[in-house]
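Project outcomes to date are best conveyed with an example. Our students and postdoctoral researchers have been running inverse folding experiments weekly, and each run begins with a structure described purely in tokens. The record below, which covers 294 residues, was selected by the lab manager from last quarter's runs and is presented without edits.
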């Protein structure tokens, strides 16, 4: 994977360093053909990588293995130590996004490894019966999580204002490892509505910038609580991880969702006051009088 990233970097640097005006059409054609050759080689490498035998997949499977405890097998004398929660934690961190016009848009790297370690520590030390699944966010993995009737869904990835699509998330493209797939609110809504059955999702955490409109799609699908970012706000990667750490720590130790949200806001405020109000909690009108921000 590092060699492939070096190839991509070399191609992008070559494009950036190429002269805007060339003396002749022949020289322009030579440079263009070289760029096309490099791009074709990179795309061929991406297409040849399967989901199971690439370094990227190995990285994800190695670092996303959380302790999974089946509540039906848990033995506890104190009922307060048992939480019957099925949690799906899905990440997407492609380094390129294929746009509708087939151009490739480089995406900044997310600090997924750090977030995984934080969540692993919280869930494994909670002493509660949590069934956890960690994986890569694709259209298929989202559908599988919904079919399994998970109660909590956490998504970390790029979102918001990407290539003119102001209300979208970036999933992983299962057909080409390392490439992203743009999923707008219409596609997301159709996935959630498919089957026309009541959702078992109680909580969704959308750890993406500009994600309020995406959060409303989950609310409209019947999810009771959605944590997301204000539509006009860009959230720092480290702040998102800090917020998620405080939020889930409070949640698995018995706090309600609104209480956990308030605790996480206070934790971020202590670290960086300017960032604490960028997160919002959407509440379902089916549970509350109206969908509002806290």
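After processing, the design step wrote out the following sequence:
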């Amino acid at each position: 994977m590092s060699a492939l990233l070096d190839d991509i970097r070399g191609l992008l640097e070559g494009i950036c360093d190429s002269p805007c005006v060339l003396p002749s059409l022949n020289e322009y054609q030579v440079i263009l053909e070289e760029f096309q050759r490099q791009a074709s080689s990179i795309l061929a490498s991406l297409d040849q990588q399967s989901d199971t035998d690439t370094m990227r997949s190995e990285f994800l499977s190695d670092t996303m293995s959380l302790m999974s405890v089946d509540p039906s097998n848990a033995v506890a004398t104190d009922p307060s130590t048992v939480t019957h929660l099925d949690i799906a934690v899905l990440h997407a961190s492609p380094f390129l996004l294929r746009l509708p016009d087939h151009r490739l848009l480089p995406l900044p790297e997310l600090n997924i490894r750090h977030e995984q370690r934080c969540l692993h520590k919280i869930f494994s030390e909670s002493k509660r019966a949590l069934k956890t699944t960690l994986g890569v966010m694709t259209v298929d993995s989202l559908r599988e999580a919904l079919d399994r009737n998970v109660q909590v869904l956490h998504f970390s990835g790029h979102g918001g204002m990407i290539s003119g699509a102001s209300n979208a998330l970036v999933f992983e493209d299962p057909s080409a490892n390392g490439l992203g797939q743009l999923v707008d609110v219409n596609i997301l809504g159709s996935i959630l509505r498919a089957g026309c059955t009541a959702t078992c999702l109680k909580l969704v955490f959308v750890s993406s910038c500009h994600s309020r409109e995406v959060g409303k799609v989950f609310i409209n699908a019947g999810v009771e609580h959605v944590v997301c970012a204000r539509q006009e706000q860009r959230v720092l990667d480290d702040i998102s991880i800090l917020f998620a750490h405080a939020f889930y720590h409070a949640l698995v130790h018995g706090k309600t969702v609104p209480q956990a949200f308030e605790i996480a806001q206070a934790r971020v405020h202590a670290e960086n006051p300017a960032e604490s109000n960028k997160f919002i909690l959407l509440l379902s009108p089916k549970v509350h009088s109206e969908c509002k921000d806290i």
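The chain is about 40% helix and 15% strand. Residues 25-48 form the longest helix (24 residues). The training component of this project remains on track.
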